[in-house]
Every structure is written in C-alpha cells, then in structure tokens.
Amino acid sequence: MARYTGPACKLCRREGEKLFLKGERCFTPKCAMEKRAYPPGEHGRYGGRRRGNRQSDYSLQLRAKQKVKRIYGVYERQFRRYFEDAQKRTGLTGLNLLQILESRLDNVVYRLGFADSRSQARQLVNHGHFVLNGRRNDIASTILKAGDTITVRTQSKQNEYFKTLKQNEETKTPPAWVEQDVNNLSGRVLRLPERAEIDGNLNEQLIVEYYSR
Q1: Contact of 92 with 100, CB cutoff 8 Å
Q2: How much is the pLDDT for 54?
Q3: Average pLDDT over residues 5-10
Q4: Predicted local distance difference test score (pLDDT) of residue 183
Q5: Higher pLDDT, 28 or 209
Q6: Residue 122 Rama label (left phi>0; alpha psi -120 to 50; beta)
Q7: Alpha carbon of 122 to those of 36, 49, 50, 71, 126: distances in Å?
Q8: Which residues contact 129 (CB under 8 A, 6 or more apart)?
Q9: How far is CA 135 from CA 37, 101, 110, 144, 150, in A?
Q10: Tens-digit pLDDT profile for residues 40-59
C-alpha cells in the first residue's frame, strides 16, 4: 500500500498543531512548528487572513478526521474500514474507533516505549524485530487484544538500538493498559484503553459526524 514519504512536519503545519510525528525532535527548537506555525504552501502564511477565521461544520469534521489519520499513519481506505468495524461493536462508535487505532501493533510498540514515534515503530515492526504471542510478526496493522504479548526477537536484542533502548527504558512510563518488562524487552496488552488514556485533543465525535453525512 502507498505510504506518505514527504516531510512529516508539513502534516503538523497543515493541522495547525504538533502531532508529534518525529518523536523527540518535536520537543526541540528544531521542530518546524516552532519556526513556521502556519500551513505549508505558497499561500500558507496569509491565506487564512483572506478566507477569514470561520470554518464550516464540514471543514471542522474533515480536519478532525485528517488529524487522527495522520497521527496514526493510516490512509483513507483502511481508516474507513476501521470506522465500519467500530460501528459494528457495542458502545460509542467514536471511542471504538480510537481503541481500534490504539490496538494496532505499531501503536502498541510505540506505547510500550520501544520507539520514539509511531512511524519509527512501524519501521521496526516491518523489519521483523518483534514477536507477537511467540510468532514473528511484521504486519504493523495487526490488531491486538487483551492478553497479547510482544517481545523483541532474540536476534534483534543484539542490535545496538535495542541495547541502548534497554538502558534508557526505565525512564519511560507506559500507559496503564499495557504492561512493560524492561529486562526482557517485552510487553503485554492488559485491556483496551479508556478514553481518558487516549490523547485528549482528538475529537472522535466530529469523525462520526463526517462519516454520517
């Protein structure tokens, strides 16, 4: 499937806020949002003044959807499938959607602190560095459930990246819905995350409204 390969900082600038797509770099003065906090493109700096600040309901819904897609690194067709799956589950559709996205293998690797960003976690998974429930898994979109365990492959533990990661892992605190084992470079999904444990600046209700038009 096609994957966005352009500058990640342009996605943050388009949404008008930091999406933390580049890990630690987003917390430094090198972050593009610190220098150019306006949309990319020829008319990015002054375009908003000509159009005015008022946004239509559709525009708000679209931007909410695009932001979530960009944060989790998902494209439209796959995102739409996740939404349809969320509709079939019991409970709130918006919360179900966020829980599905949080349950992706690449996101769980990120939440466990094995990567600084979701894009880095996706790359690590694609390169086959992780074992899921005892079997090697290189599919980043795999949806995990309660009780699933993730472990860095024995061969991969010899890589310099994972050696350094093990030394620094104790400073990272994963969310309560996953369990981290620093010594063995492994983790386990305890349950689905609650809404309060997912990024609070996401507006899932606007996404539901977008697809319900």
Answers
A1: no
A2: 73
A3: 58
A4: 87
A5: 209
A6: alpha
A7: 27, 38, 39, 12, 6
A8: 152, 153, 156, 159, 162
A9: 44, 22, 19, 13, 9
A10: 555 455 555 445 567 899 98
Rg over alpha carbons for the chain, rounded to the nearest Å, is 18
Question: Residue 172 corresponds to which tokens in the numbers above?
Answer: 């990272």
Tokens found for residue 72: 């989790």
> 């309901």: which residue's tokens?
57
Neighbours of 133 (CB within 10 A): 11
3-state per-residue secondary structure call for the chain: CCCCCCCHHHHHHHHCCCCCCCHHHHHCCCCHHHHCCCCCCCCCCCHHHHHCCCCCHHHHHHHHHHHHHHHHCCCHHHHHHHHHHHHHCCCCHHHHHHHHHHCEHHHHHHHCCCCCCHHHHHHHHHCCCEEECCEECCCCCCECCCCCEEEECCCHHHCHHHHHHHHHHHHCCCCCCEEEECCCCEEEECCCCCHHHCCCCCCHHHHHHHHCC
Residue carrying structure tokens 């949309």: 39
Q: Which amino acid is at 5?
A: T
